[in-house]
């Protein structure tokens, strides 16, 4: 058993599969020019897709996500044993913070989750947090000091954001053709849906989402263009480069804008307290040991024949790691 967080891509892929597949019955999942792909075929391929394992390697999606689900359940059960299981109030506070200061709607949309499904993930994370930080105290003075020290930086100060639409092509002639259609009066969403060569920009009539102006890691040409556009206006085509080579041509449209804001101390207090408490606790707590202790007395049954071999991995995880003796 591994306690490290798996890549978001793994969780998202399997959750999306569960949502989509659940409504398909046992019939066809998709038909391409008359050729049928069954639900079982799709799901088997998805389970075997190789993804990052969170430890610098790769592994099949099915076993990695099964590992994560079991680990989350173990943490929830430990939290119940220690009487620190997350309350509905604690979960709702986290959700409300993300609604007010984050982008909860976009998160749910991107991960294909309902609010109730997302709450389950939050509850599992909080269960682990509550167990690890059970005896950790953070003085109010430390919370205030951390707030003042980090004021002006994310997440306390949220940079200006622009909601963008985009048409993305892989050649200059194609993007110029798209630009000509816009100049002729064709609707931006229609051009994006029919001419964009990037899946993300072709969907939802080109709507991409919010970008932070000046945030590290976001190409400066993109944020500079987005910040200069008036709402509902689009700009001229520009290129995005990687290692000096043009990889994409882009036309941006500004859909909405949020000004730079600083989150109040009252709203940030609990978020900062949690971050400081976790940092302190991780220096002292034997986190793998907590999991292993509960795992030793846990009965975990794998009912799918595909994953019967995983039970051996669980049994190995129950045994303490042996260190070579010093000679």
Describe this structure in words.
The chain is of the alpha+beta class and 327 residues long. The chain has 2 domains: 8-140 and 264-318, no CATH class; 160-259, Chitinase A, domain 3 (Roll), CATH 3.10.50. The chain is built from 14 helices and 10 strands. The protein has a 4-stranded antiparallel β-sheet with strand order 7-6-9-8. A two-stranded antiparallel sheet has the order 1-2. Strands 3-4 form a two-stranded antiparallel ribbon. A hairpin with a 2-residue loop joins β8 and β9. The protein is globular. The two termini are 30 Å apart. Residues 1-26 and 323-327 have low confidence and may be disordered.
Distance between the termini: 30 Å
> How many strands, what sense, and barrel or not for the largest sheet?
4 strands, antiparallel
Q: Which range does the strand content fall in?
A: 15-25%
* Residue runs with pLDDT of under 50 for 5 or more positions: 1-26, 323-327
Helicity, as a percent range: 40-55%
Count the domains: 2
Largest sheet, order of strands side by side? 7-6-9-8
Outline type: globular
């Amino acid at each position: 058993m591994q306690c490290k967080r798996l890549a978001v891509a793994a969780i998202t892929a399997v959750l999306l599969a569960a949502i989509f597949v659940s409504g398909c019955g046992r019939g066809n999942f998709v038909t391409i020019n008359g050729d049928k792909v069954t639900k079982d075929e799709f799901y088997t391929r998805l389970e075997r897709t190789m993804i990052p394992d969170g430890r610098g390697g790769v592994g099949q999606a099915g076993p990695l996500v099964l590992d994560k689900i079991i680990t989350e359940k173990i943490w929830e059960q430990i939290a119940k044993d220690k009487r620190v299981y997350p309350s509905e109030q604690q979960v709702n506070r986290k959700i409300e913070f993300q609604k007010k200061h984050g982008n909860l709607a976009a998160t749910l949309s991107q991960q294909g989750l309902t609010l109730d499904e997302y709450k389950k993930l939050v509850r599992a994370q909080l269960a682990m947090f509550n167990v690890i930080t059970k005896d950790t105290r953070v003085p109010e003075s430390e919370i205030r000091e951390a707030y003042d020290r980090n004021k002006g930086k994310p997440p306390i100060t949220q940079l200006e954001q622009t909601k963008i639409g985009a048409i993305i092509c892989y050649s200059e002639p194609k993007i110029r053709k798209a630009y000509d259609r816009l100049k002729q009066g064709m609707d931006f969403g229609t051009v994006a849906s029919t001419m964009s060569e990037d899946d993300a920009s072709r969907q939802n009539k080109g709507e991409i989402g919010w970008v932070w102006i000046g945030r590290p890691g976001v190409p400066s040409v993109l944020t500079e263009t987005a910040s200069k556009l008036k709402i509902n206006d689009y700009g001229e085509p520009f290129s995005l480069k990687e290692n000096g080579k043009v990889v994409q041509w882009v036309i941006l449209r500004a859909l909405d804008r949020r000004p730079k804001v600083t989150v109040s101390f009252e709203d940030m207090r609990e978020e900062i307290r949690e971050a400081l408490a976790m940092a302190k606790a991780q220096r002292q707590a034997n986190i793998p040991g907590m999991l292993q202790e509960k795992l030793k007395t846990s009965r975990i049954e794998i009912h799918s024949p595909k994953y019967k071999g995983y039970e051996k991995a669980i049994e190995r995880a129950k045994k303490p790691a042996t260190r070579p003796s010093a000679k």
